[in-house]
Amino acid sequence: MAKKILLVEPAYESKYPPLGLMKISTYHRKIKNDEVKFIRGCNDEVRDEYWDRIYITTLFTYTWKETIKTIRYYKETVFSLRRKIYVGGILASLMPNELFNETGILPIIGLLDHPRKIDQDDNIIIDDLPPDYEILNQVVFPYAYKDAYLGYATRGCPRNCEFCAVNKFEPKYLSYIDIKKLISEIKNQNGEKQNLLLMDNNVLFSNNFDKIIEDIKESGFIRGATFGKTRRRRYVDFNQGLDARLLTERKMKRLAEIPLEPMRIAFDDINYKNAYIKTVRLAHKYGQKDMSNYILYNYKDKPEDFYERLKINIDLNEEFKAKAGNSSAVKTTVYSFPMRYIPLNAKDRNVDTGNLNWNKRYLRGVQVILSVIKGPVMPGKQFFEQAFGRNPEEFIETLLMPDEFIRNRVKPNWQKIKVYEKRLMPYIRQWKQTYLKLNESEKNKLIDALSDNNLKHIQYSFDNTSSKKIKRLLKYHLMAPNIVKKYKIVDKNKNDK
Predict the structure, then answer these.
(1) Which residue, among 125, 128, 62, has the nearest Cα to 90 in the 3D structure?
(2) pLDDT surpassing 90 at residue 396
(3) Domain CATH number, residue 75
């Protein structure tokens, strides 16, 4: 008899479709002929129905609150039938004891690579099944990559970096998965897809790398390939990034045979500077146009290191721009994606990582800058210097400014103003003039007053400092909204006249 299966993704922000649930759907809907319903979040209508099984996926640990709320919500539905609720995914694998203590449900750890994990009555390995794309039509949610083959050519990563969850979720490195088979199965069940999204964590480590490239090419993803009657360009995306330390010229030459867009490389540590620069230049040499590179911060780095890594990408962009000129050389564009380090057991994003080089004010400053630029750090030198400063010292100075100052540093149409200082709002120039007069001892006292990013602490420091310069800078924090508002009113009145 067909069973009723409910698949649940908590209502957290999610860019990618829930691959685990999609594979479970294939198992139940395509193989077992069960009725499958997919929903996001807490839904009264489905909770009032009878379900033979409920599967709830989990994502990052900082989605803890929303995830626990969702599990508890559906747990009340099945009452004593708690064994029929299966919870798995990243959070469940990283924090199984904490999740059990909060919900009373013992989660599934790792991949669905054994039938016993969900009490199957067969020997089918669910993790090996193709995803069921049809369930995505049951929800209204803007998932990216719905028109891409989702899969893996390898699993795991042998690096075992402390900040990474891969070795806990996929402890064994599998150097080859037949991607041709997966693509064929998806095509037969769900139709042909335009692109190929591979979520491998370290494909360059595989001793089957050449075979993987051949599989990709044989599946229709060669450089210059198009899709459909409108001849849209196809692309391959190794979404989790490539290991710069393992990219040789031979491997880059092979990557150049497929439509890799973008090419993603991590730049997690300034100590990898030389390897990273060599890798990006190698990609440029072989005609790679777009690069979208991850910049981890707040792990073991300093704010100055973070700035330097961003600046290296800007300098490389300028180098490639100059080489291209009017020649036929490819202009490689490198975008930086800053990623704040969050510990593997963090239940929210705003957690102290123990890195004493950073403080709450610095972290908040970076967050405000990134919110203003709305996405990746663009390749233009002028925009970078306006957002992050012209040097590490200016970057630190910017991070110490009030949020309102960071958001409103420059005049309207600042791009048309050639002189850097004249682009700045008057209160920013005043801030800078005072800040630059501080000696090292005064700077440290200012940082201490601002480090908690707490107005009560700032007020206390303001009341108890004897330094007029520090007092003036702290007053800007206490009065920032009014100061910015005042100048906006003045500018408006000028424009009205």
Answers:
(1) 62
(2) yes
(3) 3.40.50
